[in-house]
Amino acid sequence: MQSVTARRRRAGLPSLRPAQAAQGLTPAQCCSDALIEPIADKVGLEIAPTQRHNLARNLMKLMERHKIENAGLFLERFNRDAALFDDVIAEMTVGETYFFRDPAQFDLVRKKVLPSLLADRPERAPIRMWSTGCSTGEEAYSLAVLADQMGLADRTQIIATDISRKALKVAREGHYTEHSMRGQAAERIRPHLSRRGNRLRLREKYRRRVRFDQFWLGEDDLPCPAKGIADLDLILCRNVLIYLRPDVVQRIARQFYRCLAPGGWLLLGPSDPPLWDHAPFATFVTRAGILYRRDPSAPGRVAFDRKGAVTVPASDEASPPGEPAMAEEQTVGQRLREAKLALGEDFLARCIQELVGIGALDAAAALVKEAIGVHPLSIRLHYLQSVVLIAADRLHDAAAALRRLLYLDGSLAAAHYLLGTCLRESDPETAGQAFAIAFALCTRRPAEEPVELMEEYSTGRLAIRIGREIADLKLSTRDGF
Fold first, then answer.
1. What are 81-99's pLDDT values in tens digits?
2. Residue 441 sits in which domain range?
3. Residue 321: pLDDT above 80?
4. 187 and 132 both lie in a single domain
5. pLDDT averaged over the chain?
6. With b meaning 16 or more CB within 10 Å and e meaning fewer, what string describes 212-226?
7. Domain annotation covers residue 411
8. Whether 135 and 62 share a structural domain
9. How far apart (Å, rounded) are the C-alpha atoms in residues 183 and 202?
10. Where would I find the CheR-type methyltransferase domain in this sequence (predicted)?
C-alpha cells in the first residue's frame, strides 16, 4: 500500500505543508510530540491532527540541529533563544506570500476602502495602515506601491509586523526572487524593482515608507501605541487567523476593534475565520471577501457603496450568552455565511485551497460540500472536492466525486487522470482505462497548452506522467489490463 503522501505526489497534487500523513515515527521522535502542545499554547496556534506527526518529526530534527538533549531543555531554550524560536515558528506556520496576493482585495482597498477614508477628513490628515503577519514584507510593500499610485504616498503611514525575526530581516532589506512575483497582479510592482543576477530589490523610496517591527499577535497586548498600533484606519490580517486557536481569535477580534479609529476598516484573508460573533463590527460581504468596520464616530462620515454587498452590524459584544441579543447574533452569522457561499466560485475555490494548504481537511470538505450545493454545475468545485478527499485518503469517495465531475464534462483529462490514481490499487483495470482516456485527451492538444483544472501542468508534461503510470500499472498486474 502506498502512503497518502506518495499517492498525492504520484497524482501531481499540490504538496501540503505540513503533509497530511507521515511514515511511522521512532519512539525518540514520538517524544517530541510532547513539545507541540506547550509551544502551540504559548503562541496561540491551532495544530490540526493531520499536522502533528510531521511536525513532531521536524521538531526532533531541530533538537538535533541545535544539539538539545531533551524536551525540557528544548522548551527552556525556545523561551530565550531567538534563532531556535524562529526555526520553531517556521515549522509551525506557513510564510506563504507574494506581491499583490489576492489582487481583488487590493482592488477593494483602492476602489472602496481608501476613498471612504479620504471622505470628510482634512486634506493632509495621515492614513494609518497595519499589515499584521507580514512575513517577508510583500503585502506591506504592495500597500506602499498602491498608495503611491493613488497619489497618497506622503499621507500614508504603514506599519508591518510579524513574529519571525528572520522574515522581518528579509522584509527590511527588500531583497526578493521571482518566487515573490507569482501571479499576474505582481507585475504591478516590477517597475519598482531593480535586478542583480537572480535577485530583485525594491526601490529605497518604498522601503522607507514601511516600518517593520516584531509583534506577537497571539500574545502581545493591543492596542500598542508605543509601536504605533492604535487609531488605525486599515488593518490587513490575511491568512493569519486560520492558524490560531478559537479563543485566541476571539481575543484578537476585540483587540482589532479597539485598534481601529472610528470608521476604520479590517480586511482578512478568504479562509480566515469570521469575527462577527466576537466584536461589534459592521460587516460588508463583497466579491473580494469580507470587510469589517468600526462604526464612524459621526453618522455619514463614510459613504460606502452597498450595491452587491451585505451589511450586517454585529450585536453588542457585552451581551451575555443566552440573552436575546446573542440569538440575534447567531442569525447574523448564518446570514453572512450564506452570503459568503453566494460570492462566487472563484472566491470559494480560494477558500477551499487555503484550507487544504494548511491541512484543515474537515473544514475544507464541509465548505466544498456546501459550495457545490450552491453551485452544483461548477466543475472546479467538484474537482476540488476530489482533491480534498484524496488528501484525506478517502479514495473511494474521491472516485465517486470524480465520476460526478466526468458526468458534467467527460473531456477533462485531469479528472480521468485522478480517477485512475484513486482506483490504481482497488480496481487496476478501470484505473488503466481512465489513464488511457486521459493520455488520449492530452495528446490531442498542443503540448504546451495548460491542462484544465491542473494549470500547473502542460498537456505534454501530464501525458509523460500518465505514460509512466500506465507502464507502472502494467508491471504491477500479471496480465496487463
1. 888 888 888 888 777 789 9
2. 345-476
3. no
4. yes
5. 80
6. beebebbeeebbbee
7. yes
8. no
9. 18
10. 39-297
Cα–Cα distance measured from residue 214 to residue 43, given in angstroms and rounded to the nearest whole number: 14
- For 82-136, strand residue ranges (E) read 127-132
pLDDT digits (tens, 9 = 90+) for 140-172: 999 999 999 999 999 999 999 998 888 999 999
Residues found in the chain: 481
Task: Looking at the structure, tell me whether residues 67 and 116 fall in a common domain.
Answer: no
Nearest to 387 by CA among 16, 2, 3, 1: 16
Report which residue type is found at 88: V
85, three cell numbers: 524560536
Whole-number pLDDT of residue 123:
81
Domain boundary among the residues 291, 312, 339 is at: 339
Residue 407 cell numbers, joined: 458526468
Are 351 and 335 within one domain? no
In a domain, 221, yes or no: yes
The packing angle between helices 33-43 and 52-65, to 10°, is 100
Do 57 and 112 share a structural domain?
Answer: no
C-alpha to C-alpha distance for 390 and 368, rounded to whole angstroms: 14
Residues 135 and 55 in one domain: no
The vertex-373 CA angle with 369 and 378, nearest 5°, equals: 90
CATH number where 467 lies: 1.25.40.10
pLDDT above 70 covers a percentage of the chain that reads 82
Per-residue pLDDT at 343: 61
Cβ-contact 397, 25 below 8 angstroms: no
Confidence (pTM)? 0.64
**Do residues 66 and 133 both lie within one domain?**
no
Assigned domain for 481 exists: no
CB–CB of 267/235 below 8 Å?
Answer: yes
* Angstrom distance (rounded) from CA 142 to CA 475: 52
Question: How many domains are there within the chain?
Answer: 3
Give the phi and the psi of residue 129 in degrees, each rounded to 5: -125, 150
46: Cβ contacts below 8 Å, ≥ 6 apart: 40, 243, 244, 245, 246
**Does residue 401 surpass a pLDDT of 80?**
yes
Nearest to 216 by CA among 328, 79, 414, 37: 79
Contact 262, 294 (CB under 8 A): yes
H-only helix segments in 16-65: 27-31, 33-43, 52-65
User: What would the mean pLDDT of 183-209 be, rounded to a whole number?
Assistant: 90
Radius of gyration of the chain, Cα coordinates, nearest whole angstrom: 24
Domain endpoint, select from 339, 366, 385 = 339
Cell (9 digits) for 210: 514601511
C-alpha dist (Å) from residue 293 to 126, 246, 301, 378: 18, 21, 13, 32
Question: Which range, of 16-30, 177-191, 223-237, 271-285, averages the lowest pLDDT?
Answer: 16-30
What is the grid cell recorded at 170? 528579509
Cβ 420 vs Cβ 435: under 8 Å: yes
Task: Kindly tell me the sign of the dihedral angle through the C-alpha atoms of 405, 407, 411, 417.
Answer: positive
Please check whether residue 98 lies inside any domain of the structure.
Answer: no
- 359 with 381, same domain: the answer is yes
